[in-house]
Amino acid sequence: MKSGVLTLTKNEEYVLEIDAMGSEGEGVGRVDGFAVFVPFALTGETVRVKIVKMLKNYAHARLEEVITPSPSRLVPECESFYKCGGCNFWHVDYDFEFQYKTQKVKDAIKRIGKSDAGVCEIIGVKRQYHYRNKAQFPVTPEGIGFFAPRSHRLVPMNNCLIQNQINEKMICALKKFMEKYGVLPYDEKTHTGDIRHLYTRVAENTGEVMVCIVTRQKKLLHSERLVEILLQADKNIVSIVQNVNPDKTNAVLGEREILLWGKPYIKDKIEDLYFRISPKSFYQVNSDQTKILYDEVVKAGNFTGNERVLDLYCGAGTISLYIARHVKEVKGVEVVARAVENARENAILNGIDNAVFVEGRAEDIAPDLSLYDVVIVDPPRKGCNEKLLQAMLAISPKKIIYVSCNPATLARDIKILEDGGYKTEWIQPVDMFPRTPHVETVVLITRVKE
């Protein structure tokens, strides 16, 4: 074991002082200025590690021993915590996680965004257990569960502390069906087998449940028996869908959907609004925190009732419809066709006539930007398309409300907008994903040049 050396060697052990946290929740120590990333290590700890990967400017290590533990360290409640890739923070108290997430956003804004914009303290959660309303379980020859970090090595699992508890029943029901009728799990090495994923969505405010079975091919033997077994497992199921994904791909869902039983959607409620959700619809995974997040959007808008709003990457229209009562009109743009259909259905369902939805890519709507006072963007983790950012700079809407799930790409985009004449007024993190390093943010950005 080495300490204080000038160079690092793979497979050697070292003693480190952890002085920072990485963006994925790992501890960071240094040997003569050379950064070493250590999963499950915490700031303030002294640890013994083994170097497992060397790169030009940093290394990855495996935690071997915690010599001096942090006061925030806990014994994980999840028995699969150190093997599964789903969560990162069952080994710390929530106060540590709370502070980490606020600092994570601050660090990204300052380091990547080169901005002095103020970052508010994160809005925390009341519920840390079983909060996720969406789950995707790979079905493999090794079992049903989650993949280990940065791998396709399956960690079998029946009960997950952050997923809805109905999943335990759904996993057992699917296993029962497969064993009884000889239906095979998908083998990605040979591209054979029948069932690739078990995918569930739960409308927590109405209780409705969707079960989606992802298969390699259209033909699913004994599908009527599968329906019977699933319905016997839980009375709240209102939709059973087969999704067909014939490709050699890491993508979970394919293009084709076959309704096996019930409705092609579930219906959830946010405040007094109802939303239809199909398998491919984007919908926030934490129902408790969604209203809090959307209230921050309304706060950022400070709407008078006269605004024309453009909502990009709008998913099933949840933000558009949530703000509709506060504005003159809102137009949502979304690339997923079924989600657009859901959004239109949701507008009709709620009797909202000042919201319209169109299918298309956010970056292709540049000519429309000049028609709107406020632009809302809620992009995927990769952030906004460069073409869209340049279009916003060219046409300069008065106000941009940026909803982000990735502080790094948010900071990158903020820098582009600030360099182009905008000012970031405030940044509000919201904890949508407790026990993980992920954080959602709402950002108010205003035009400072005419």
The helix/strand class is alpha/beta
- Tell me, what is the CATH class of the largest domain? Alpha Beta
Q: SSE string, helix = H, strand = E?
A: EEEEEHEEEHEEHEEEEHEHEHEEHEHEE
Mean pLDDT, to the nearest integer, reads 94
CATH superfamily of the largest domain: Vaccinia Virus protein VP39
Poorly predicted runs: none
User: Which sheet architecture does the biggest sheet show?
Assistant: 7 strands, mixed
Give the beta-strand count: 21
- CATH hierarchy: architecture of the largest domain: 3-Layer(aba) Sandwich
Please give the structural blueprint.
Blueprint: E1 13-21, E2 27-31, E3 34-38, E4 46-54, E5 58-68, H1 94-111, E6 134-140, E7 143-147, E8 154-156, H2 166-181, E9 195-202, E10 209-215, H3 223-233, E11 237-244, E12 256-262, E13 266-270, E14 273-277, H4 287-301, E15 308-312, H5 318-323, E16 329-334, H6 337-349, E17 355-359, E18 374-377, H7 386-395, E19 399-404, H8 407-419, E20 422-430, E21 440-447
Parallel strand pairs: 3-5, 10-11, 15-16, 15-18, 16-17, 18-19
Antiparallel strand pairs: 1-2, 1-4, 2-3, 4-5, 6-7, 6-9, 7-8, 9-10, 11-12, 13-14, 19-21, 20-21
Helix pairs in contact: 1-8, 2-3
